Amino acid sequence: MVTAQEERKTFLQDLQLFNEFEEEQIENIAKRLKAHKLEKGESLFSEGDDGDNFYIIQSGLVRVWRQENQEEVDLAILETGDYFGEEALLFYRPRSASITAAEDTTLLYLDETDFQWLLEYSPDIRENLNAIAETHQKARQLRFTWLGDSEVIHLILQRHVAHFLINLVKPGLVLLPELLLVYIILNPPTPATLFFSQILSVILLFVAFLMTIWYLIDWRNDYFIVTNQRVIWIEQVLLQSASRQEAPLSTIQSVNVQTSLLGRMMDYGKVIVRTYTGSLDMENVETPKLMQGVIEELLLRVRKKGRKSKLDTIRYTIRKNLGYAVVDEEKVVAREAIPPAVDEVGLMWKIFKTRVVEEDTFTYHKHWFSLLKKSWIPVTILITIITAAVWLIWRNFTTAAYPPIFTTLMLSFLGLVYPVLSITYQILDWRNDLYRVTKDQIVDREKKPFSTETINSAPLKNVLSLKHKKEGILGILLNYGSVEINVGDASLTFDDMHNPALVQQDIFYNMEKQKLAAEESEAETERSRMMAWLKTYHELRETEENSAQS
Pick from 1, 188, 289, 351: CA 20 to 30 A from residue 9's CA? Predict the structure, then answer.
């Protein structure tokens, strides 16, 4: 019979937090752990309470929430294998959120004395727990709006400070001439030389200062995020571009870490997340092995959940077939579609609307700026002709100047034919191009007015990775860019999209909803198959018993 001590030891061995520990070390930690059970709806502690324990969820679910404007705001749902409570103990501060059991839950915990023993027992544990605590703080501060309702951030990392220090070489090179300028300023051959040397010295210092600030902001703008559903790389280059690449956990094949000698000394390196057809290569990641461990643990959880789901299906089917009482498990429900399908707005807004939602179908048109780029010449001509006509008519009324009003109107009418037709054509062309994300497909349609139509599509289930990018200062200010969708041996690109981050979020939403539907369908198929087997088994057994009796 497996003892509670052995069960805890086996449980700890599967956690990323202890994956570098020897068996004897894990056994020592397991001996210090105490158990605490919570019933569904029972609170463990409240926001503002003093921190006294570090908790690990052995089984069950807990709800993390805060009180904001007299309302309970959910922050996360933590599950088996997750841990919490380290922030208050590491930083000696009150609890930052409240914890309530979402179902019957068993917790393992270390009190403050044993927690301090753990930190001294392994310095690596302190580093990892610091990273997790900082993740919770950043998640509260940044509040990523593109996260799903059931999505939990497990890790947020940034580029290592070495990345910033290496980039400081460039402003350092700019300052090299300063040595010569300082010498000239101290020993000026002429007053004019002194003046120009001082001016040039100030300019070089100012340029080096701006470059340093630019690299500092650029360094702080990049995030590497791991959630319970995907791995995400957010990269922003100040005034140049902004992008978000991601790979769903279900598509990840392996996670590798590459480090240089300096990287091993300073604990940074390259994390390579490989999917079926490509990879997400994240450079200069701080504590890369921690990121690798977190991703691998989450992948293991996904596989365990799949196996548990199949076992639950078998158990449910057998109990139902034998006439035993069964309790239906609560199903995971995907979040609701974001906005209403059609807004009650004016005609002009409907014409230039770039995103329409109808249940689970998202339809997009290109950003209005792409229309402006193609039609600015006829628009300029149109404005020029109208302005000239108004001026001539005004001149005619005030000074009786030529040409007459009728001639002016006729010339203006003839001059307006080209720009009006051209603008109309560009508007039709802009409206005809559309991108669509349905519950099971991605569609890219390009259609020229009165001409050819090209439609590219791909099944939603084939999507392996997503990336959006905004380039240039106009792309950032006007919030438009492209969304790249990797579908195996090909890719689809949604160009000139308004709010590409939201488009990427819509695609991921439908992907997750389709995955949940597929899992439910597979479970239902498995139940039907099991019922058929059991029915056949009982029929054969009944036949054999009847034969034996006769």
Answer: 289
The contacts found for 534-540 with CB under 8 angstroms, 24 or more apart, are 534/317, 534/318, 534/321, 535/321, 538/321
Q: What's the pLDDT tens digit per position in 74-97? A: 888 899 999 999 999 998 889 989
Order of strands across the sheet that contains 71-78: 43-45, 98-101, 62-68, 71-78
Give φ, ψ of 98 to 5 degrees: -100, 150
* pTM over cut 0.70: yes
Model pLDDT for residues 163-179, shown as the tens digit of each residue: 999 999 999 998 888 88
The sign of the torsion formed by the CA atoms of 118, 119, 121, 124 equals positive
CA pair distance 167, 326, nearest whole angstrom: 63
> Is 500 within 8 Å of 139 (Cβ atoms)?
no
C-alpha span between 18 and 175 (Å, rounded) = 47
Residue 329 has pLDDT above 50, yes or no: no
Q: Which region holds residue 345: left if phi is over 0, alpha if psi is between -120 and 50, else beta?
A: beta
Burial of 508 (0-12, 13-18, 19+ CB in 10 A): buried
Tokens matching residue 76: 């996360």
Q: How far is CA 471 from CA 224, 225, 479, 504, 507, in A?
A: 20, 22, 10, 16, 21
316 is written with which tokens?
């449910």
Helix 123-142 vs helix 112-121: angle between axes, to the nearest 10 degrees?
Answer: 110
pLDDT tens digits, residue range 460-493?
888 888 888 888 888 888 888 999 998 877 788 9
Residue 97 Cα distances to 45, 67, 88, 176, angstroms: 8, 8, 10, 51
